[in-house]
Design brief:
The chain is of the alpha/beta class. The chain is built from twelve helices and 14 strands. The chain folds into two domains: 166 residues, no CATH class; 153 residues, NAD(P)-binding Rossmann-like Domain (Rossmann fold, 3-Layer(aba) Sandwich), CATH 3.40.50.
Length: 337
């Protein structure tokens, strides 16, 4: 029985369970298996609230969890959610793991899946000459995904904490993208890719263009699921991104995703590295080439992007947008309303 199961068994209710979990040492939360594969994994958790994770205490908990995974025999340790940002994409954690343990932050495959999510979103809204905003473009997912989107010839608005950081990490895209440190510039985009849940970058419906679509990859989410309907009433589609489907995948830890074979792209990258015998660390900001390679490996191993969940999206909005676009003349403006 996992540590989480024991805590739940001896908790009177969810509130007590959360209180115990958030004050506990690192826990084995569940097991990962894949039908037909000898690879087996565990979900080891540093269970803390988001506000605690981005503190010295949160960092200590993440280090403890990673060391527990290594102690239990993990050849590859993968990071997820806020365990990446609190360790600078794994860079701070790397020297604290035993020799022979490979570390990945999972951001290469996540960046590639983010690009696929954006392309699917654009096909849904059917905009000619669409404009795409990347919120969190200088992060460890944002740099690679921005390059992959630029490969598609899209008109990009890359938004980061400062234009200086954008120039530092994305200078090669300055001739094909607009750099911005103003979150409200998302209002110029037909599709918005969210890669940060920082409180200074949380989106509200009034900040976005009516008829636009938002793909939220932030963990924890930038836009909570319970607010999707509010955005829908304002004429904005919201969908969760960064999720893949793996045939035969089973995880005993409930992540509340759509189906039993759904998981996060970062976890899938950990599996790919373990099953292929790859022993190259993937920390910090992955290169676009590494993201492309991980995506090719994913496809070769039967891993596919999960389609954006449209059952949570008002289909009348999609139909309305499609009707508008079919009526739009071929000489429509580059950035349609």
């Amino acid at each position: 029985m996992s540590g989480a199961s024991l805590l739940r068994r001896y908790s009177q209710d969810d509130e007590e369970f959360i209180q115990k979990a958030c004050s506990s040492p690192a826990l084995v939360l569940g097991e990962v298996t894949l039908r037909g594969s000898s690879v087996r994994g565990e979900v080891v958790g540093a269970v803390r609230m988001p506000r605690t994770m981005l503190t010295r205490e949160g960092l200590r908990a993440v280090i403890e969890a990673a060391q527990l995974a290594a102690l239990r025999g993990s050849a590859v340790v993968g990071l997820g959610a806020l365990t990446g940002p609190v360790t600078s994409g794994g860079l701070f954690l790397l020297p604290r793991l035993p020799a022979g343990v490979t570390l990945t932050n999972g951001n290469a495959l996540t960046a590639a899946i983010a690009k696929e999510n954006v392309m699917e979103a654009l096909s849904i809204i059917g905009v000619q000459s669409p404009r795409v905003a990347v919120l969190g473009a200088t992060g460890s997912v944002g740099v690679a995904s921005s390059h992959l989107l630029a490969d598609e010839g899209l008109d990009l608005i890359l938004i980061g904490r400062s234009t200086a950081m954008l120039k530092e990490y994305l200078d090669g895209l300055s001739h094909v993208a607009t750099f911005s440190d103003d979150v409200t510039d998302v209002g110029e985009a037909d599709a918005v890719l969210i890669l940060t849940s920082d409180s200074s970058a949380c989106l509200r419906p009034e900040m976005l263009k009516q008829g636009s679509i938002v793909i939220d990859l932030a963990q924890p989410p930038n836009i909570p699921h319970e607010e999707y309907q509010e955005f829908g009433r304002a004429g904005i589609l919201v969908a969760e991104g960064g999720i893949v489907r793996i045939a035969g995948y089973c995880c005993t830890q409930e992540f509340f995703l759509d189906g039993p074979e759904d998981t996060f792209a970062c976890l899938a990258e950990t599996y790919l590295m373990a099953s292929s015998g790859m022993r190259e660390h993937s920390v910090g900001r992955p290169s676009p080439d590494f993201a492309r390679m991980m995506f090719s490996m994913a496809i070769a191993n039967g891993i596919r992007p999960r389609p954006l969940l449209l059952d949570s999206i008002d289909s009348t909005l999609i139909q309305h947008r499609a009707a508008r676009q079919t009526r739009r003349p071929l000489h429509a403006r580059t950035h349609p309303d």
